[in-house]
Design a protein that fits this description.
The protein is mainly α. Helix content is 69%, strand content 0%. The protein is rod-shaped. The protein has a domain of 26 residues.
């Protein structure tokens, strides 16, 4: 007598569908799925090793070759007149 039969669960499901409607339930399930995807994505981002990000260290200075190239492109694109 302690367990519910399949008929009890069907009646409960029917009452829930009548109260909330199928549109609200599908909307709730969609929101739940988005939340789970976001959670998994954040977990993956946290698990990335420190050295995988391709970022320049703060305060890095380009070498002389890069500076010379930058100067020639600045002077060639400057308006003449």
């Amino acid at each position: 007598m302690g367990s519910f039969s399949i008929w009890h669960w069907l009646v409960v499901l029917l009452v829930i569908l009548l109260l909330f409607g199928s549109g609200k339930i599908s909307g709730l399930m969609g929101d739940l799925a988005k939340g789970i995807k976001s959670f998994k994505q954040n977990i993956k981002e946290d698990e990335k090793p420190e050295g995988t990000a391709e970022q320049k260290p703060a305060g890095s200075i380009a070498g002389p070759d890069a500076q010379a190239t930058a100067r020639t492109t600045e002077t060639s694109s400057a308006p003449r007149g």
